[in-house]
Amino acid sequence: MEETRSQPRLADALSKQLLLKGLLAYSAFGACQVLYRLLRGWRESLRMRDMLADIPASKGNEAPMSWVKEMRKNFHRANDWRYEICEGMPICKNVGFRWNPGGFQVICGEPDMVRHFLKDAFDTYTKGVPSGENPFFIYFQEFLGDGIFTVRHGLGSDDDGKAWTQMRKISAQIFNRKNFNSLMQDVFVEKAESLRSFLSRPEVQKEPVDLQMGFFNFTMDSIMKIFFGEDSSTVMGKQNRYGEAFDNAQGAMRQHMVKSISFNLIASTFLPWPFSSPSGGGLARMLWDATSPTYREFTSELAVIHDEADRLVKECLADPKFETRRDLLALFLQAQKEIKFTTQFVKDMVLNLIIAGRDTTACLLSWMFYEISRDPEVQKRLHDEIDRKSPAGTSMDLKSLSHNELPYLHAVIYETLRLWPPVPVDSKVAFADDVLPGGWKVPRGTTLVFCPLVEDVGWKEARSHTTFKASACCGCDIDFAVLWYNMGRDPVRYPDPLAFKPERWIPFTAPPHHEFPVFQAGPRICLGMDMAIFEAKIAAVELLRHLRFELKAGQSITYGTKITMNVKSGDKEELLVWVKKR
Ligand code: HEM
């Protein structure tokens, strides 16, 4: 009897002992892991600090990681803040923590440097790896999956860049001259006519209209047709849940990403497995994400996007004409047999191409019409040129819309891209130690950021004369920036830089890509560059043949919060314009 009563007590004591031992073992393991990470981080950070010692810190950001705090404070004017911290310096750095190598950035200001890391040393610099040290890429990858925008090439890739080469090769098939003058031309003209007919409605012309929304709908409808063979009519007011989900997911992702930088850096260093991991995962991040309303919004919108991508892929595969289809989705699915892409991969590609093709060109058109509708002289010159060279009823193709035929229109587009680059920031990460032109050392793991070659003279003075009001913007920022935005505003290269002067592009000589990296440069230069310009020209000619535009007075115009730089009026992402028949 005595013996049977003592058995549970013994089992209790044994399990308590086991628990205690387990806890002790886990504490020892956790402490060793944190210590190891700290030592490793400290050693790597020291090495980076030593190698970067010759490069001056960006203005106001001398203390380790102080730039993150400053960046947060300046979310509402992210692009201008980036200009100010490297003003007058051809190269500067943002300093990371002493115990984590993740926060080091080098901001380059000279086209030679840009050329070096986008072209000459192409294999050394690529996209970052999502990790605790690079929290920006965690969410970016979650959004874009394994598509062309996230895939790494060169030293940073596991497959020697094969996946990127294949994606690029297949995508490039759609951007040939034959397609421009048939499929693309037909689609752009049809969708531009729809937009023009919508804007010509008397009820639409009674009130100022959000022209930016019109352009996002126009580019969405065009992309759906060219890339996926699908007819959508958002331009005519038909709702597109996909487009909305896309915008909401982008906005929420960026907000959450910025909010999470410090948390991810700290958690991945100081919390042991399974609460965190150097790859950026772990229970702590799961909890952090799950309790964030912006993250929940991001994932629920992402689910809508994925369902839609699923539908597009299924319908394409079931199409009896599948084998003869030439839209981009069909090309990828046809190639799947030989290259063994997974269906998930094709879906990611779909998503990447929509972001590439829809938002960028819509931003270009929005800023272009912002400039046109606030300057009657520019609009008059465009009307005159179009009336003379491309009146209603004449066809629009690559030749008739070239810079030789319509030099002023071409110049307006380049001037818009200079002042309002649709992708104002971007970055590359060094995967090996390197030396930049000028002898500046760059350690492995540094994020390379571009900055313009800016002189102190000129910029401030020009700014004081501008009518652009960078107020009331609640835009957020990303931590790794490539400053296309600022390069276009360099007063040395572009005198009177803030003035909209299309004449500076006449006669037109294409600028070297590393000096004007609006479409990036080197082997990963934008694939859709010619398509975007062609599309913007067709839309502009079609609208200006029939309509005139006047900016609604009293708007405080600035830039918005998306990855691509859209127009913001007050606290709304819109561009209100009066549209009238000519
Ligand atoms: C004004 C319009 C556009 C601008 C300013 C623009 C700008 C850019 C930039 C800056 C990049 C480099 C991003 C990076 O990898 O870090 C890029 C890449 C890319 N763009 Fe565009 N883009 C525009 C329109 C388009 C269009 C219409 C398409 C057609 C789908 C397109 C397709 C791509 C693709 C596929 C890449 C990835 C290239 C690669 O990594 O190999 N873009 N674009």
Automatic annotation (TrEMBL):
Signal peptide: none annotated. PROSITE patterns: PROKAR_LIPOPROTEIN. It holds the Pfam family p450. InterPro entries: Cyt_P450, Cyt_P450_E_grp-I, Cyt_P450_sf. The keyword Heme applies. It comes from the Eukaryota. Heme binds at C526. Its cofactor is heme. The keyword Nucleus does not apply. GO terms for molecular function: heme binding; iron ion binding; monooxygenase activity; oxidoreductase activity, acting on paired donors, with incorporation or reduction of molecular oxygen. Keywords: Heme, Iron, Metal-binding, Oxidoreductase. Coiled coil: none annotated. Transmembrane segments: none annotated. Belongs to the cytochrome P450 family. This is CYP704C1 protein. The gene is CYP704C1.
